[in-house]
Amino acid sequence: MSIRYIKCTDINRVGQQVGQLLINQVKREPHSSFILATGSSPITTYKILVQDHQINHTDWSKTTTFNLDEYLGLNEKYAQQSYRYFMDENLFNHINIDKARTYFPNQSLIGSKYQELMQRYPRIAIAILGVGNNGHIAFNEPGTPIDSWTHIVNLTASSRQANARFFDNDIHNVPTQAVTMGLKEILQANQIILIATGKAKSEAIQHLKYAQKFDPNWPITALTLHNDVIVFTDALID
Hints:
It is globular, with a radius of gyration of 17 Å. The protein has 238 residues and is α/β, with parallel strands linked by helices. Helix 7 (202-210) links the parallel strand 9 (191-196) and strand 10 (229-233). The longest helix is centred in the first third of the chain and has 18 residues, at 11-28. The chain has 7 helices and 10 strands. The protein has helices spanning 11-28, 43-56, 83-90, 113-118, 157-163, 183-186, 202-210; strands at 3-7, 33-36, 64-67, 69-72, 102-103, 124-129, 151-154, 177-180, 191-196, 229-233.
């Protein structure tokens, strides 16, 4: 286990540091593959990547990305809440990435099929993760086994409530299921970067800090099984 903790003053500084790590990787290895997250945690990172591309023209044309998760059964009224839409709006539309090599899990990629798709490309250089208040990473909710591959998950009430702000503040509008990359796939990345900002994430980070082994009640503790993890937090995290 090798986990480094880097506390930044605020989420903008987190974005600057994580963004620069990704930029450096692309410049060093243009054919790099990445696992990417959605949600509020990586937004400032993606802003840095867009700004850098506009100013420095960093070339993303040879890279490949695999997103962690995607909703199932999304109402057409909320199509703009899909994670594909999120990535297009916050990153892909603003850099010169080949969208044919930006992948998302779906019902045809259940089990090891998403992993088999990843294996057609260079090994994942960096996986970017956020974390939920209950310790979930991607949509791997508490109780997810460590050997899980891409699977359909029934979203917990807490996760749906956390996302209700994107659905007219009504949990009934939030999809009840999603497809998520499993813990086994995430752990195969060369390096994992976890972004945790805001007071609500403190409990999950504390569980990671003091975990001696994987605890399925806190999926974030799967990171104790990896040998190169960097956790970026802001000043609100204890």
